[in-house]
Amino acid sequence: MHDRTTWRIRHRLAAALLALVCVLAACAGGETADQADRTAVEPLTVSAIPDQDPQELQRLYEQVAQYLQQRLGVPVEYVPVTDYNASVSLFRSGDLDLVWFGGLTGVQARLQTPGAEVIAQRDIDAQFHSVFIANTSTGLEPVGDVRGLEVLEGRRFTFGSESSTSGRLMPQYFLDQAGVSQDDFAGVPGFSGSHDKTIDLVESGSFEAGVLNEQVWEARVEAGDIDERKVGVIFRTPEYHDYHWVLGPSAAERYGDGFPEQVRDALLGLSADDEQQAQVLDLFGAQRFIPAQASDYDQIEQIARELGLVR
Fold first, then answer.
1. Cβ contacts of 11 within 8 Å, gap of 6 or more
2. How far apart are CA 144 and CA 115, in angstroms?
3. Can you give the pLDDT of all 311 residues of the chain as single tens digits?
4. Long-range contacts of range 258-267, CB-CB < 8 Å, 24 or more positions apart?
5. What architecture is domain 43-125+244-306?
6. Check: CATH 2.110.10.10 for 129-236?
7. Contact yes or no for 99/45 (Cβ under 8 A)
8. How far apart are CA 271 and CA 262, in angstroms?
9. Intrachain domains 43-125+244-306 and 129-236 with the same fold
């Protein structure tokens, strides 16, 4: 059975069960009729691009789903996806309601889904960076500016996912500024699929150099998961906007016209002063979420059009 059909069947069964529970609770005086109506619909489906280890993503977004369910008073379900393209296509079809996209996938999703809204970003997303890394056996030294990336010519190089903002789109943009095209690498460049895999491939020597999300690099270094005798950073890119939450139009249709604002308020309301909420923020690598708007990603859209990644 197709995944979309399976999810819809599961959602309807869950909704039916929730409706029964809500009716019983209302009859017992534990819930108003309006509250019962709101919870007796299909769950709000939350997802994210699979840019890191699946177990880490599961741990994070199950906590996010629990928090949003408490704040919004609606059933919330985390739905993992297999790749970046799946997150965009399932958002377009309405099978995913609220998705944590990268800059590029968020642009792609909004262009393909009329009525989709940018909801929020982390405090670190307005000034995001990628890092170029190299296996130390190459002898490559840190470079001081974008033009220095020409040292990667003739090297075996890997990006992250083909649709990654920090692992492909912006790095390719900076490489272009240095006059380095994909034809200048030794062989066809790799696409590892995730930032974690990029680190592992360069550290092992499968590729001589690569590029990834700076936040993932720093988290792995802090956790002691990287042998810095084997791999190190050779360049930190200029800043750009990256990750953000995007809400699909079907959510407002199910929960009411004011629902996008309620979701935004819930995310902006995450506080480091609350122990459980602080855990969620820590897993996101942020101190707080801040307002975001579609125009924040105009640069991403322009570069993506130049590279032929959106039409």
1. 42, 43, 45, 77
2. 42
3. 444 444 444 444 444 334 333 333 333 444 443 444 555 578 999 999 998 888 989 999 999 999 999 999 999 999 999 999 999 999 999 999 999 999 999 999 999 999 999 999 999 999 999 999 999 999 999 999 999 999 999 999 999 999 999 999 999 999 999 999 999 999 999 999 999 999 999 999 999 999 999 999 999 999 999 999 999 999 999 999 999 999 999 999 999 989 999 999 999 999 999 999 999 999 999 999 999 999 999 999 999 999 888 87
4. 259/72, 260/117, 260/119, 262/71, 262/72, 263/68, 263/72, 263/98, 263/119, 264/119, 264/120, 264/291, 266/67, 266/68, 266/71, 266/72, 267/119, 267/120
5. 3-Layer(aba) Sandwich (3.40)
6. no
7. no
8. 16
9. yes
Q: Which amino acid is at 278?
A: A
What value, to the nearest 5°, has the Cα angle with vertex 293 and ends 211 and 65?
75
Q: How far apart are CA 171 and CA 164, in angstroms?
A: 10
Run of H or E including 288: none
Residue-range domain boundaries for the chain: 1-42, 43-125+244-306, 129-236
